[in-house]
Design a protein that fits this description.
Length: 278
């Protein structure tokens, strides 16, 4: 088993195998790496400012918050996290919140925090049926109008179950087909889309302009759990080559489970990305 020192050393000095070499000469280096704060939810709850400082030191630039037991910004006020991130050279770009009774409060806080996007972290009503996804589409259309009034862009972050089918129709497609393409954008979680049976590239081609945000993660080969980049079944390097096809604006690293500590895993993932291109 690697020591912690060996693990961190590897994250900063990874050598890519021949599989990825073609990409190094075909595209620009990865930059402006984002992080979804759910990846460091426990450290954020314990010390939000200190954790943001550590993420900035690693090299992350774009921040996506996520609702917690302490609110949408891990106990920080909207103006407070706006100033902290600015001082650290970070940009608070987006946030994950539920579409529920506190929705308008979340919209108001996002506007005050100065972020660009507000993302529904899950479906506001349960049911893996076409009828429910049409109902959700109506809710999302209204939510997007609320965001537009506040100069925010609304989006939805998928899970793997969104790619289930009913009567031959993929539920995620029902959602895309029944929402306003100008107002309702998608934050495609590439890992869970693939695990659920979706092909991200096909979606980029079928629904142009709908995917300005990505979540990138690797998934273990033997179970549906996230892992450090390069250790699982997701072709991170290959997917990054589709940035232009997707018209992707920002992407966020997300890792829900760890073999090491969250910050060690995120250090490793950042080092991995620095060896790739897009």
């Amino acid at each position: 088993m690697k020591t912690r020192r060996e693990f961190l050393k590897t994250s900063g000095g990874m050598v890519l195998g021949g599989l990825f070499l073609p990409y190094l000469t075909e595209a620009a280096k990865v930059k402006n790496v984002g992080i979804n704060l759910y990846s460091v939810r426990e450290p954020m709850l314990a010390d939000a400012k200190g954790t943001l400082e550590k993420l900035a030191k690693i090299g992350y630039k774009e921040i996506e918050s996520a609702k917690s037991v302490k609110g949408n910004y891990y106990g920080l006020q909207p103006k407070e996290i706006k100033q902290i991130t600015k001082d650290l050279g970070l940009t608070l770009r987006s946030g994950h919140v539920p579409v529920n009774a506190t929705w308008q409060k979340s919209v108001d806080e996002a506007a005050e925090a100065g972020q660009d996007y507000l993302i529904a972290a899950g479906l506001p009503s349960r049911g893996q049926t076409i009828d429910n996804y049409k109902k959700v589409a109506d809710i999302f259309n209204k939510s997007a109008e609320d965001c537009q009034k506040a100069n925010l862009i609304f989006g939805y972050h998928n899970g793997g179950s969104d790619f289930a089918q009913e009567n031959g129709q993929t539920l995620y497609d029902v959602l895309l087909d029944n929402t306003n393409p100008d107002l309702v954008k998608m934050e495609l979680d590439l890992g869970w889309a693939i695990v659920g049976g979706g092909d991200p590239v096909q979606y980029f081609e079928k629904y142009p302009g709908r995917f300005p945000l990505w979540h990138i993660k690797d998934i273990k080969k033997d179970k549906a759990e996230s892992t450090e980049f390069g250790k699982g079944r997701i072709d991170i390097a290959g997917l990054l080559q589709n940035k232009k096809k997707s018209d992707m604006k920002y992407f966020f690293v997300e890792q829900e489970e760890w073999d090491h500590s969250p910050l060690e895993s995120l250090q490793y993932n950042y080092g991995y990305l620095m060896k790739l291109s897009m």
